[in-house]
Amino acid sequence: MKTAVLALALAACAWPQGLNPSALLKLPTDTWPTYNGDYSGRRYSPLKQINASNAGYLTLAWAFQPRSVAIKSTPLLINGILYLTVPDRVWAVDARTGREVWHYHYESAGGDHIGHRGVAMWGNWLYFTTPDAHLVCLNARDGSVRWTIELADWKLGYFSTMAPLVVRNHIIVGVSGDVTDIPGYLESVDPETGSLQWRWYTEPKPGQPGSESWPQGTDAITHGGGMTWMTGTYDPQLNLLYWGTGNPNPVLAGDIRKGDNLYTCSIVALHPDTGKLAWYFQPSPHDTHDWDAVQTPVLLDASYQGRPRKLLAQASRNGYFFLLDRTDGQHLLTSRFIETNWAKGIDSRGRPIPNPEKEPRPDGTLVEPGSDGATNWMSPSFSPETGLFYVVARRVFSIFYYTATGKPEGWAGRDRNLYSDSTLRAIDYRTGQIRWNHELGPGESVAGILSTAGGLLFTGDSQGNLLVLDARTGKTLWHASAGGNMVSSPMTYELDGRQYVVEGVQGVLYAWALPESLSQAK
Amino acid sequence: MTWIPNRIFVFALALGGLPLAAETPAAAIQRGRAQYVQACGFCHGEDATGNRAPDLVRSPLVNHDVNGDLIAPVIRNGRPDKGMPAFPLSAAAVSDIVAFLHARVDESLHSAHVSNDYPAARLLTGSVQAGRAFFDGAGGCRACHSPAGDLAGVAAKFTPLDLEVRFLYPRGAPRTAAVTTPGGQTFEGRVVHLDEFTVAIRDSGGWYHSWPRSQVRVTVHDPLAGHRELLAKYTDADIHDLFAYLETLK
């Protein structure tokens, strides 16, 4: 371990443009070194040059138009360079001007090109997942390839969209799947060589703890699911990694996999050096509606019932907000953050109890939310100043049809969306109560949220507007009609004394800042 | 799926160059299914999802196969180490089995879809009478709709699935708005855009207008408001009953 730290320190010294690993342990200011800005997943910045008193003056600093598909990634920012992705492509962009530094194109053999969340950085190297489920290590200086490894067999339906997470000398990387019945896993690879350090499978092997939550004597557990397709979080003091897992397969077919189906739709705490499971909590036991529990497990160090606690909060795709003690997974609170109609109540362990009547049926079952979820991959945010957890929530009514006639494989049916609208909800993490909400309009917003010490929230509505809201009240302080909906999660940084906020809107990356005259007049 | 044209080519070769038009993928799959059930179904399951031998739909070998390059040798040679005997089938039979297995994989890959021709029989689990009662009573549908008026023949216009999805939430019925300007003038028309900041309408003459919301008074009429209220109230039985009733309006 010591050798690895030393090697990392040397690597950082040798190439001053690379990422100094100590940046991963600080609040993000002149660096945004990981998908959510820091390990906590709060997507909170201590920057406050832009604040409630001046947000109305925000103006365009630059726009970068890669002429690509929609940008769903959050760029990293290291030493004045942004690193941005879409499926198969990485750009290095000057964070001061929005001008391209280099561009890398990966020729994928196939796989799902649904979206991409971003790269990870370790020293001078970038780590990029691909639609055909490979991991590419690139030289951050010029985008040249150092090595490529296969994460999974794309011909079986695997792909990868996530931004890996760097924990010391581990590159933690997950896989995606959708229509095929394949097991999910999370793995750690060596940053220098790409060799496998460990792999944790979402489904236990028969006989292992958790396997009792699947039917015995059938092949149900091998149908898998439980993809690890969003970036998790990490607590350096506890040395625990927190990760959300996706839905079990076949997606809508509950009858052939009766039981809780561990560890799908779960939040798991893993030891980053071994991949061993420390504890788990399951937001959606026995899911039959595609409600992945991959939403950021946000780490809060905050007071709960009168004493400081190490907390973990998730606003889950199934419509429920969960608060846990992240040292041991003890459940503290469950509440709904949007209307739902699928649970009969909450069990003694804090889990919603699925109503079997709301499982998909051949003649249709009306469920709220639909498979797209009450929220999804867009980032939530937690501001330690307001004590509020912010989430883009959707009311989605959908009718689920179970269509398989023989033994189900894959999805075994689908839901038809009927109506949806979106709202930003500010949740008091101590009670689960909604302090305020800000309606975002009809349709399903997929804009993430950034909160800042300037008392602001940066997000977008479902009508093509970018928004700055007052983090305490939800009042709109600034907006811009951006020519499309934000389908990414915002980030911010300060360079040369000027704070920038970067937001992807379809195929354009916008950087907003105060006019230079205001930025300099501190 | 790239195997389809290649598969036709292989078949054409096997028959010594018969016209391509004589063969369709569906025919090969159909023959393949019969061949498969006879030779393979006992162990691998009649739908290829496994039995005493592995599930072939999820098999890496099947998923990597191109035109039988991996499957055919296994059929011909067997896997003696795993207890699978060799099957001395004709090239054409093997080719058809390959087509069938790829079709099964394809079905699984496309299982996240409810097609518009979804059979009415699966949807018809409700009571026509109860559906009529809901329409006339608790549903409040009569306030806007009439079975002899706007809904006459509605079940003949849409596939059963479409009918169900549309009565639950008929997309496309436009909102209308009356916008009163600070000068007291009122404009009416179909809503083109409405958000926190802007309202835009198209008036009866076809002209587009927009205003900042902060400067006008806007009254919106949404003909679908009743449908949204019902979405929060329906039981699944209400939906199935209402569908059974509306499906009679041919």
Polypeptide structure, described:
The complex is a heterodimer of chains A (522) and B (250). Chain A has 522 residues and is mainly β. Chain A is built from 2 helices and 36 strands. Chain A has a 5-stranded mixed β-sheet with strand order 1-30-31-32-33, with no helix packed on it. In chain A, a hairpin with a 5-residue loop joins strand 23 and strand 24. The longest helix of chain A has 13 residues. The radius of gyration of chain A is 22 Å and the shape is globular. The N terminus of chain A is likely disordered. By secondary structure, chain B is of the alpha+beta class. Chain B has a 5-stranded antiparallel β-sheet, with no helix packed on it. In chain B, a hairpin with a 3-residue loop joins strand 2 and strand 3. The N terminus of chain B is likely disordered. Chains A and B meet through strand 27, strand 28 and strand 33 of A and helix 4, helix 6, helix 10, helix 11 and helix 12 of B.
Radius of gyration of chain A: 22 Å
Mean pLDDT of chain A: 95
Helix content of chain A: under 10%
What about the largest sheet of chain A? 5 strands, mixed
Report the CATH superfamily of chain A: Quinoprotein alcohol dehydrogenase-like superfamily
Q: For the residues shown, what is the average pLDDT of chain B? A: 91
